[in-house]
Amino acid sequence: MPVLLRDRPLRLAAVRHVRFGANPERPELSVQAEYFAERLTGYGAVTAPARPPRGNRNGYARMGERLLAELPGAPDLVVLAHALPDCDMSVSAGGYLAQALDGDPTIFAVSEQGRGTPFAALRLVRAHTPAGAEDGPRTMAVLVLDQGTLFYDDPALSGLDTATDHAVGLLFTPDGPVRVGPPVQHHAVAPERVADLVAEAVRELGPGPVTVTAGACLPRGLPGTVRRAPADRLCTSVWSDLAEQLAKPCPADRTILVAEYEPALGHLSLTACDVPAGHVC
């Protein structure tokens, strides 16, 4: 069955990548450390509530507010996307942003899908903008958030850069110039099948040149021009690379295929972006 990577695209108006160092407020997180120690004891996870957690102590509420300030306009719908739990659970990120933003925005959060979480967030945004709808949200934001303050040890996260936290904001409007196709998520994909599925998507996008923004877990040898996204972050990896590409004008129309693979779940996520010549976000 063909994958309609360009069917009913979202319209991307702006994308911003914000980096965070240490939170100058240094919030007290001992209660959160005790919470994780209690919750994870039965699973054999190593926790150390007695020591201060490593990391910058940037909660998702703080990161989301700063990121929204960088995006033009006030969104009617906001979807938060993160793979790791919030380090500061004393604040509800969604509730905080609902109070901080103008108007009465609808706010969702998506988590626990690893590197594929932002693609699930894009699916939520599309679900709230049905074809022909006149009364749905007109300006929508997806906030992709990575913070590295952890209260437990996980070998799978050993490659993360805990010195810098990252956030990428995607703002969609009815007339945004960059067309973002519907996310396609393949499930139960074995690593040896990933390259073939990406190649199939590149072929479907047509005979023109395609740049593949590839997550760190995708194999080598992919078709087209390939950019390897940073390996030191989770959700924001491919999206920070997309932000870098869209910050520079190109003299010709171009297509970017954003591709991410979550090996722990076997999820391969793809979405295509058609960028007009000369456009920057």
Key descriptive features of the protein:
two-stranded antiparallel sheet; 281 residues; Peroxisomal Thiolase, Chain A, domain 1; single chain; 6 helices; alpha/beta; eleven-stranded mixed sheet
Structural account:
By secondary structure, this protein is α/β, with parallel strands linked by helices. The chain has 2 domains: 10-23 and 52-176, Thiolase/Chalcone synthase (Peroxisomal Thiolase, Chain A, domain 1, 3-Layer(aba) Sandwich); 179-275, Thiolase/Chalcone synthase (Peroxisomal Thiolase, Chain A, domain 1). The chain is 23% helix and 26% strand. It contains 6 helices and 13 strands. The strands form 2 sheets. Strands 1, 3, 4, 5, 7, 8, 9, 10, 11, 12 and 13 form an 11-stranded mixed β-sheet that branches. The chain has a two-stranded antiparallel sheet with strand order 2-6. Helix 2 (60-70) packs parallel to helix 3 (93-100). The radius of gyration is 19 Å and the shape is globular.
Describe the secondary-structure layout.
Layout: E1 10-20, H1 30-40, E2 46-47, H2 60-70, E3 77-82, H3 93-100, E4 106-110, H4 117-127, E5 140-146, E6 152-153, E7 165-172, E8 178-180, E9 184-186, H5 191-204, E10 210-214, E11 225-228, H6 237-246, E12 254-262, E13 267-275
Parallel strand pairs: 3-4, 3-5, 10-11, 10-12
Antiparallel strand pairs: 1-7, 1-8, 2-6, 5-7, 8-13, 9-13, 12-13
